[in-house]
Specification:
The complex is a heterodimer of chains A (about 300) and B (about 450). With about 300 residues, chain A is mainly alpha-helical. Chain A is built from eleven helices and two strands. Chain A has helices spanning about 1-30, 40-55, 65-85, 90-115, 140-160, 165-175, 175-180, 185-210, 225-235, 240-260, 270-285, and strands at about 130, 135-140. In chain A, about 55% of the residues are buried. With about 450 residues, chain B is an alpha/beta fold. Chain B has three domains: about 1-45, no CATH class; about 55-110 and about 125-185 and about 325-410, Response regulator (Rossmann fold); about 190-320 and about 410-430, 3-Layer(aba) Sandwich (Rossmann fold), CATH 3.40.50. In chain B, strand 9, helix 12 and strand 10 form a beta-alpha-beta unit. The chains are: A mainly alpha (about 300), B alpha/beta (about 450). Chains A and B meet through helix 1, helix 4, strand 2, helix 9 and helix 10 of A and helix 2, helix 11 and helix 12 of B.
Chain lengths: ~300, ~450
């Protein structure tokens, strides 16, 4: 029964990881941008949520309704200006630029909003749960994060495979020159993809930093960002389904590691995740989803 | 970029410049860092022993005004305004028949040990302070104390378990025989945690199984190796959840362990965000200890906001509060009056670090009052070790503590309870076993009935 509980908690945790990694995966899949400022952008989203709550007095849980579009618009402009300019100078430049962006964001937040930590008030939602039997109880917040992660990835997958814009995004991702020859404005397409990515980052930032834990300006470059990169690699670079699978694999493996380690070796939780990450890199360098790209 | 700049410099400056560049990358504090280089140059020219011969006593105050530990310092600006208004600090100290003006220089440690050491160095080398006062967790106090001991400047610390402070300076808290010439501290240690928490455990009927959540960091290991034996000595069984890494995202396994051992007592010393994550998951997954006594978190009202109703009847320690029967040695204002003044002035609920920060300045005055030359750092440090007085944080005697230069203050057991007043939750004294002079404010109730 303990193992069942571990696996359930692992899947829930995996939902959180997948949601957090979704934006990273999309940016890489479409633009081949490894966004090192990913975590910091999620923290920015949490701060935006605080601002939105203070201004409009909407309940904390619903703040994402405003934060997601704000971040998406921000994402479009970020892509059209900074990231596009760096893309035209090569892959290494985008790495350096997003790394720089990460430092700039942290420093600006520290300067103007202090290093104090905050949380998004969520009433008793963050602690509410329901039980199955005596051993298993499932938190509503965790469950909803999982549901949101699956929904977001489903909708995105559908959007990419069925909608006109989605087809354009895939076309540009597959062969930019050919898509341009066919008349696609790839800069605009990249902007849309970045907007979607930042929208999901906003969801993750509000859910994890805002409600699951606490946030301060420097928390974005912490362990969760590392997990997000691992999720993307485990799942397969650029594949959305892979991201969901990778998140759940990492979450479950961490829980199993924690159970094996027990109180004597709690660091097995961390270690198990790293080992799976390494194993995937060695055995399946393309990730769980193989060479298939988005769709 | 950085490497090019420092390439041609002599080796001893190299390390400083490298650190400067790193810090510049991290926090954009390049300008401050350059000050560090200048300070380092200055020190080699003048020597650290050179005292300012002016008629002013300079006191440095290092506290985490910003950063994750800023809650500890939230009352410090208020304390400074109160201290500066007292006649002793306004009109100056009389030392050896001469009156010296007093100048307090405040530095923010930003909750970072690196910054704390850096600003302490600045205070000593640039501001030529005669004494450094520092407060609020080992992250700030230990690097500051180490810097002061190295540079030969008197230093008083507080709000740091004395074992951590002592070990931070290189002493062995188990055999505390080393005397640190320039540094003193007043607070309490693991033994007082035991004498404060165990009586509360004893009064709530339970099965004597203690769930211990101690991380793999300095405080966590101090509790693991120092506090767990004391738990066992008190007749309780220890269920150690393991030395988990700070920042862990999921505690399900630890929670299952505590549930399977049916732990009814809970003890911890985590980082605040980790406690939020743990306690939220514990509540979801049905780990509901009968009595929870927390250390390092929930010391202040602001910490209770994130947890809301879940904070009700969680117990912790309190070293100061309006209920303390203490008053200022500077102007006689009582603890209650000080807390009321804080609430009236800031609109915020009182925090217990007001009392300890206030007492730092009382101790400084006591020490300067016992010397002939306030700029003679050796003499001031010697006087510090003999300060024995009673003030805002109660009686403090640096000569009679468990280690040289350690004064002990006696905490009481408190619980967060729903308040009928202006603030949602307030600290209520529920156990005064360790400090019977403090009146009880309410009944000890189980954290989870």
């Amino acid at each position: 029964m303990i193992w069942v509980n571990d696996i359930i908690q692992g899947i829930l945790l995996g939902g959180l990881y997948a949601l957090f990694a979704c934006g990273l995966s999309l940016m890489f899949g479409v633009m081949k941008v490894i966004n090192l400022a990913h975590g910091d952008l999620a923290v920015v989203a949490a701060y935006v949520a605080l601002g939105v709550i203070a201004l409009t007095h909407i309940p904390g849980v619903w703040s994402f309704v405003l934060v997601v579009p704000i971040m998406a618009v921000g994402g479009y402009f970020l892509q059209r200006t900074l990231i596009q300019a760096s893309l035209e100078r090569g892959t290494i430049t985008t790495l350096l630029v997003t790394f720089g962006l990460s430092i700039v964001i942290e420093t600006v937040l520290l300067q103007f909003l202090s290093a104090n930590s905050h949380g998004i008030p969520d009433g008793s939602f963050g602690t509410a749960s329901f039980s199955i039997g005596s051993q298993i109880s499932i938190g509503w917040l965790d469950l909803i994060i999982l549901v949101v992660a699956v929904t977001v990835l489903l909708v995105l997958q559908f959007y990419l495979s069925r909608s006109r814009n989605g087809r354009l995004i895939r076309a540009v991702a597959d062969d930019r020159e050919a898509a341009q020859l066919a008349g696609a404005d790839y800069r605009h397409i990249f902007g849309i993809a970045a907007a979607i990515a930042l929208g999901t980052v906003a969801l993750a930032g509000v859910a994890y930093f805002g409600m699951y834990s606490q946030f301060d300006p420097t928390i974005g470059t912490g362990q969760l960002l590392l997990y997000a990169f691992e999720v993307v690699v485990i799942g397969g670079l650029g594949s959305l389904w892979g991201t969901l699978a990778g998140g759940i694999v990492l979450g479950v493996v961490q829980q199993i590691g924690a159970q094996i380690g027990g109180a004597a070796h709690p660091d097995y939780q961390f270690l198990a995740g790293q080992l799976v990450f390494l194993a995937v890199l060695v055995v399946l360098p393309q990730g769980l989803t193989g060479i298939r790209r988005t769709a | 970029m950085g490497a090019d700049e420092v390439g041609g410099q002599p080796p001893q400056q190299h390390t400083i410049a490298r650190r400067t560049v790193l810090r510049g990358l991290g926090a954009g504090a390049l300008a401050t860092g350059m000050g560090g280089i200048l300070a380092a140059c200055g020190s080699s020219l003048k020597g650290s022993g050179g005292s300012s011969s002016s008629g002013t006593i300079n006191i440095g105050f290092v506290t985490p005004l910003t950063g994750p530990l800023a809650g500890f310092a939230s009352g410090d600006q208020f304390v400074l305004s109160q201290i500066r208004a007292t006649s002793a600090y306004k009109n100056g100290f009389k030392v050896g028949g001469k009156t010296y003006k007093v100048n307090i220089i405040v530095k923010d440690s930003q909750s970072s040990p690196n910054t704390a050491a850096q600003v302490a160095g600045q205070l000593i080398l640039n501001n030529h302070v005669d004494m450094v006062l520092t407060t609020s967790t080992p992250e700030t106090t230990n690097p500051v104390a180490a810097e002061c001991e190295k540079q030969g400047t008197p230093c008083v610390s507080t709000v740091v378990p004395w074992e951590s402070w002592y070990a931070g300076l290189g002493g062995n808290p188990v055999k505390p025989t080393t005397t640190f010439e320039y540094c003193t501290t007043f607070f309490f240690g693991l033994k007082e945690f035991q004498e404060c928490f165990v009586p509360m455990w004893n009064r709530v009927p339970n099965n004597h199984e203690v769930a211990c959540m101690y991380p793999n960091d300095a405080d966590g290991n101090a509790f693991r190796f120092g506090f767990e034996p004391l738990i066992k000595a008190s007749g309780y069984k220890v269920v150690d959840g393991g030395a988990y890494p700070d920042g862990q995202t999921d505690y399900s396994t630890m929670i299952s362990l505590f549930k399977s051992k049916q732990c009814e007592v809970y003890s911890n010393c985590p980082l605040p965000p980790d406690f939020i994550t743990f306690w939220r998951q514990a509540s979801q997954q049905g780990f509901k200890p009968k009595i929870a006594t927390v250390a390092k978190v929930l010391l202040f009202p602001a910490d209770t906001v994130a947890l809301g109703a879940l904070v009700n009847n969680i117990a912790t320690d309190s070293w100061w509060g309006p209920y303390m029967p203490y008053s200022s040695s500077l102007d006689g204002v009582t603890a209650k009056a000080l807390a009321d003044a804080y609430q009236a002035k800031t609109g915020n609920q009182w925090v217990q670090s007001i009392g300890s920060s206030y007492a730092l300045f009382e101790v400084a005055k006591e020490a300067f009052g016992a010397v002939s030359d306030p700029h003679d750092k050796k003499e001031v440090a010697g006087a510090l070790h003999h300060v024995n007085y009673s003030g805002m944080n109660g009686p403090i005697n640096f000569a009679a503590g468990p280690a040289p230069g350690v004064g002990i203050v006696k905490p009481v057991g408190v619980q967060w309870k729903r308040s009928t007043g202006k603030y949602p939750f307030e600290m209520v004294v529920v156990d005064n076993s360790l400090n019977p002079g403090v009146p009880l404010g309410g009944k000890l109730e189980p954290t989870n009935a």
